Amino acid sequence: MKNINLNRRNFLKKLSAGLTSFVVSQSFIQKINAEEANPSTPPGFYNEKYRPQFHFTPKTNWMNDPNGMVYYKGEYHLFFQHNPNGINWGDMTWGHAVSKDLVRWQQLANAIVPDDLGTIFSGSAVVDWKNTAGFQKEKEKAIVAIYTSAGDFAPVKKPFTQSIAYSIDCGRTWKKYEGNPVLGHLAEQNRDPKVIWHEPSQSWVMALYLKGNDYALFSSKNLKEWSHLCDINLPGASECPDFFELSVDGSRKIKKWVFWGANSSYIIGTFDGKKFIKESDILTADRGSNFYAAQTFSDIPESDGRRIQMAWMRDGSFPNMPFNQQLSFPCELTLRNFPEGIRMCRKPVEEISKIHKNKFRLKNKILRKGDNLLSNITGELFDIRAEFELIDAAEFGFRIRGKTAGYNAETKEIFSLGKSALLSPVSNRITIQMLVDRTSIETFANEGKVSMSSCFLPETKDMPLETYCTSGSVKIISLEIYQLKSIWNNTEA
Predict the structure, then answer these.
(1) In the beta sheet, which residues pair with residue 96?
(2) Do 422 and 415 contact (CB within 8 A), yes or no?
(3) What structural domains does the chain harbor?
């Protein structure tokens, strides 16, 4: 089959239009099972020209959707769609990495590999605290992964179905349930099960993509037998649902449910354990060029209480690299009231401070046309935090390695790497945080009301960081710039 470097949905459309299906052989399955994670690392690995230095990438080969994100006993588990045998999409397997701090990741052996039901497409994972599935044998709780068996790619072609696997050794080894699939074929290439525990109904709830704009919710008492609850329509989103509850403005009494689709569209509503009722229009969480198939972690302790999300930064370009694609930096999600209604806000998790190093700070400075207040700062990894008070500048912001990100006061738009979003000042002020890596800039404005996640390739070998103002002036209330350490091999970039 011709290599197709596209998102999965377009790939499957082309496949259904007549391309030859990939068939999984037993020898291929054995090859994946035998793959070792993190063998001795040759010099230069994790410090290649275009290797992100604080965004997760696999050591080698293709990666797309984050899968099975779950927290258990001090570790964040990140699974991901992975081709262990090639630089482009194919041979879908669940890769696996763990972190104790959401920042530094260690890639482990591949977790779930293809079988007679197909390759392993996206899904989720949960800790079965009450042993509802009966997989727990001793004191260690079972982590259960719920995933799509992509039957188009089975040795003998089959429909897409949903299956489970479990681990009783803290996620190090995985065994597939002998009764798979646990949910049969429903429509076309139904896929990407997201499972949560719903405490009021004492049941598991699965959000599943069906086809077109159609999704559905299902319920189970044991993760093995599922019954239909309701249908949900989310136009334009396509695949990779997420479903979770969030407090509004931090209130313990006022909470809303969020139903999420792959392109960062979401709707807000209520859920009683049986039916989801939407209460908002379709909203958009991220306005960047490369944000797709985001998922949130399951089982983060109540003492922490955060809803933490990562996404595939789809279609980022990495010429002549041993890996392909990257993930976004983890963000905390909140719901906040605004004059136009409740909206989701996204902000980088506070753990980014663990890789802060050199700090530059300005306060109460006037930025005028022609000024560059950062003439002595160069580098490629930054956490930039700024608060501006508008005076009469038409446009202001930052130039980063030949790219521009900032605010247009005339159109009231925040912009970054060619993308923009409406953003009104609050008390005549704008706040901006930007995470700058070798090949990406993630921009968050006004405490995360607007976020934009985009990839880029530097146009120059130079690494200047500049402030600019096109006309008039703007007041910098505060500006903090942190150079960042690399997360790989405990080295500094």
Answers:
(1) 79, 108
(2) no
(3) 8-348 (2.115.10.20), 351-484 (2.60.120.560)
- 374 contacts 454 by C-beta, under 8 angstroms: no
User: Among residues 65, 91, 128, 286, which one is catalytic?
Assistant: 65
Encode the chain (493 residues) as per-residue pLDDT tens digits. 333 334 444 444 433 333 333 344 444 444 444 444 444 556 678 999 999 999 999 999 999 999 999 999 999 999 999 999 999 999 999 999 999 999 999 999 999 999 999 999 999 999 999 999 999 999 999 999 999 999 999 999 999 999 999 999 999 999 999 999 999 999 999 999 999 999 999 999 999 999 999 999 999 999 999 999 999 999 988 899 999 999 999 998 999 999 999 999 999 999 999 999 999 999 999 999 999 999 999 999 999 999 999 999 999 989 999 999 999 999 999 999 999 999 999 999 999 999 999 999 999 999 999 999 998 898 899 999 999 999 999 999 999 988 999 999 999 999 999 999 999 999 999 999 999 999 999 999 999 999 999 999 987 676 789 999 999 999 999 999 999 999 996 543 3
Catalytic, 65? Answer yes
Contacts of 189 (CB under 8 A, 6+ apart): 12, 16, 150, 152, 160, 211
Q: Which among 85, 29, 33, 76 is positioned nearest to 58, based on CA atoms?
A: 85
Report the residue count for the chain. 493
